[in-house]
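FAQ: What does the model actually see?

It sees only this:
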Amino acid sequence: MKFYLKILLLLFCIPVLGQNVIVDKDTYSPQELIEDVLINSGCIEDIEVTNVVGANFANGDQSYGYFENDGGPFPFEKGIVMTTGRLANVPGPNDGLSDDDAAGWVGDDDLEDYLDLNHTVNATVLEFDFTPVADNIRFRYIFASEEYREFQSTTCEYSDAFAFLIRPVGTDEYDNLAVIPGTDIPVKVTTVHSGIPGSCPPQNEEYFAGFNPYDSPIIFNGQTKILTAESQVVPGTTYHIKLVIADDINYRYDSAVFLEGESFNIGANLGEDITGLCEGETHLLEPLGIGNDPTGYQWYKVEGNEEVLLAEGQDSYEVSESGTYKVVIEYGGSCTAEDEIEVSYVNFEDLDTLSISSCIQSDENENGFLYDLPSFENIILQGEDYIITDYYLSEEDADSETNPIENPAVFHSSEIGQEIFVSIESERGCTTVLKITLSATGEDLGPVYLYTCPDEYNSINYTFNLTDAIADVQEELGIYIDFFEFYQTESDAFFEENPLDNSYSISTSDFPNSVFIRVDGSLGCQGLIEIKLEDLDAPEIDPNFSQEVFCEGANESITLYSGVIDNEEDLVFEWENGATTPSIDVTDPGAYQVTISKPHLVSGDTIYCTKTHTVQAETSEKPTVDYQFIGEPGDYTVEVIVSGIGDYEFALDDSPWQLNNIFKVDAGKHDIY
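And it is asked to produce this:
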């Protein structure tokens, strides 16, 4: 059984391992790696490897060499790989860690200078001279690294370094070609990744191929997409190029750069893509900086996977329609250079005639409406990168660019359905005229009403949640509301100025009051409706209401009342003990809370305005009474002196009760109460 099990495992593993890249350190010398594997082109002359630096591993392994795709998903079929670890560790799967070091393996000063580093180790270097026959060289590469750590913050912090340094022979200053396209930012783990949640956002994510799974054809944890290193050069001039990669800080977590075989070549240059040509306009395609005298030209139009030959021999080609065009320049022998360019013409037919709507009737024209035409710019242009030059009342005026509408921001139509015309211009000056129909909505829309109660703890303040009116607005418009805003005035709503918050507070003195809701759709304002704000009254408490009190020492209950001024039959009561009556009997002193609600019937719904009131049950007792005279005979006052639990009122003889305890008295007998 063990024998057969081993055979089955072996059969299972072979196809998986067959998907990995294959590496070779012995077949090609450094000169052959550069001249025959990386370049192999008659367009690059005088190729001479001038310096090689690699690891001195005890078993004879190298840190650079040839690689080949063994039928797996790796993007390159063959090429050169340079690594900061063992060449033998480059192939997948990604089931371990390339983390190698070797005795005496130092860093590189040029790499540190041009990438602003201060401690590199384990540098692998290939340097060579070459002479191009055209003014542009380019090659393709992929950077991969173990320092790509999915879900780990170190991806944001650490990266090995590499550079492709180029300079004319006889000069000292290099340019680095291993940069993010269109920038001078070096390609590194920290500059190209998809972000680490909680640690750092994505960096140039469009150039990141991803974190590699277990069955990756290479051992490294992550890699970039295919990138292109390119440089302008002077034909016939000899250049020196230094390809270098190194660990930064320490030898841990190796990295590699893969250079695609036969990708180091010259390229033709047709310039940037041409967009937005006008109808009837032609454009002359001419290669830039063709270098040594070419022996021939071929021009193609690329249609899917096919290339249709358009012309031969001529050094330029005039195009008159959109498409992808390609030039192949022959330099004799096996040297050719090619480039593609995308040419596109503006297509105003993509602009549909539109109907835009207004919500406000004109105060100048009885049957017209008011429009802020520039506010519809994005709708009219329909996402295209054009500009509107003017608005006109007729197509003839628009074509001749005469008599534009003087104030399109405040335009009064003459009737519903009036047509106006818009002059539109592209970035390159192409023009067209688009017809716009002016429709209207809301001419018969009435107001809706929104009711609210006063704030419970500030009875003169009313806070409206304006979105509570949405259901009634939708019913009035007969549509589902997708986008809306509230405004203080109709003018603000029209010009979309000073929008209000959904929570809107006013005081008693601000009534009557209204706000306006503007409802917008894809073609403009779908409705402008007044929301009338109505105040509801809450129960009112009598501040002078006096409750019964407990008499000290008496075994009794008392009745507590809510203290409302309103008719108790119109209110709803809920005491904290669950009672729902206007008053309750209690046997103990203390604070008793009652919630009083006043119902209001509004459009078939009942809205309750509530107030919470705390009723205090106090204790009192009969006072101990004394008095004293103040003054002189004929001008006496008497001060009643009391002590005891409670608040007391006073009377003298038949006088009314009063809080003041001092009375003026004449001579004779008096009764104090």
